[in-house]
């Protein structure tokens, strides 16, 4: 997963990293000093971290060496570690722990509590854990459809297939300057009520959920955004 896709990842993501960085900055900046520390779980190519303020302490963790190779080429002031976010233990805490752009959906629902435990274990007192997810409704609704977009000479086609057991395989085909790359990325979705219960079990007692841009909150929203505090 992501090994062949990595060199094309930034080109095909459009403005998403910018939007996620803005969201993180808004929630991190609610109180206290302006200098912040952030841990990004599933940081990929570092596209979000590079858009956060230069004076923040940044650590990015990802399981894909290919994605991290792109992140390191950018030479930003950040530490990048190859590790699994289900079992990460850095022995230090951060003002913000972020897990964005449906990274959580890359794991089966039964593994989400371990990611929430990782977030809780790395959060400083008063810190905030931010994540988003593709909803059950979105993945169910988009299954069987194919979307093709073209940007900067890159053609991207995506087809989502419902393979059962709450798993949806995204078949991605990228064509750029005569090179064709294909990858399959599995995503999993679970009901909002289950996510709420898992967060509570992980010690997150204050959780705000939004559908973004005044969209309703529920399993039929496309994407949900979670702001979690203990
Ligand atoms: C959709 S990308 C998001 C990357 C980045 N957060 C962004 O917004 O550009 C999902 C990332 O999660 C990573 N990932 C998936 N499962 C992981 C795991 N168990 N541990 C660490 N990283 C993981 C993938 O390698 C990939 O880079």
Automatic annotation (TrEMBL):
Instruction: Give me any GO biological process, just one.
Output: methylation
Known Gene3D superfamilies for this protein? CAC2371-like domains (2.20.130.10), Vaccinia Virus protein VP39 (3.40.50.150)
Q: What is an example of a Pfam family matching this protein?
A: Methyltransf_25
Pinpoint the Methyltransferase domain residues. 38-127
CDD domains (UniProt xref): AdoMet_MTases
Q: Which InterPro entries match?
A: Methyltransf_25 (IPR041698), SAM-dependent_MTases_sf (IPR029063)
- The residue stretches assigned to a coiled coil in this entry are none
Q: Which GO terms describe its molecular function?
A: methyltransferase activity
Highest rank taxon of the organism: Bacteria
Is Metal-binding set as a keyword in this record? no
Q: Which UniProt keywords apply?
A: Methyltransferase, Transferase
- What is the protein name stated in its UniProt record? Methyltransferase domain-containing protein
* Source organism (scientific name): Microbacterium testaceum
């Amino acid at each position: 997963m992501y090994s062949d896709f990595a060199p094309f990842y930034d080109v095909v993501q459009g403005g998403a990293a910018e939007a996620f960085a803005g969201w993180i900055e808004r929630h991190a900046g609610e109180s206290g000093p302006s200098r912040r520390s952030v841990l990004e779980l599933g940081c990929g190519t570092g596209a979000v971290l590079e858009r956060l303020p230069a004076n923040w302490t940044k650590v990015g963790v990802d399981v894909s060496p290919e994605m991290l190779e792109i992140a390191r080429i950018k030479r930003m002031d950040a530490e990048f570690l190859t590790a699994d976010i289900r079992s990460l233990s850095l022995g230090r805490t951060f003002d913000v722990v972020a897990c964005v752009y449906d990274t959580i959906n890359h794991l089966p629902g039964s593994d989400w509590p371990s990611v929430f435990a990782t977030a809780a274990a790395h959060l400083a007192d008063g810190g905030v854990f931010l994540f988003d997810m593709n909803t059950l409704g979105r993945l169910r609704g988009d299954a069987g459809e194919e979307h093709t977009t073209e940007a900067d000479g890159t053609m991207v086609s995506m087809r989502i297939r419902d393979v059962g057991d709450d798993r949806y395989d995204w078949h991605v085909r990228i064509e750029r300057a005569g090179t064709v790359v294909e990858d399959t990325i599995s995503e999993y979705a679970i009901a909002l009520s289950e996510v709420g219960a898992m967060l509570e079990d992980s010690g997150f007692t204050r959780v705000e959920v939004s559908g973004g841009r005044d969209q309703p909150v529920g399993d039929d929203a496309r994407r949900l955004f979670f702001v979690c505090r203990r």
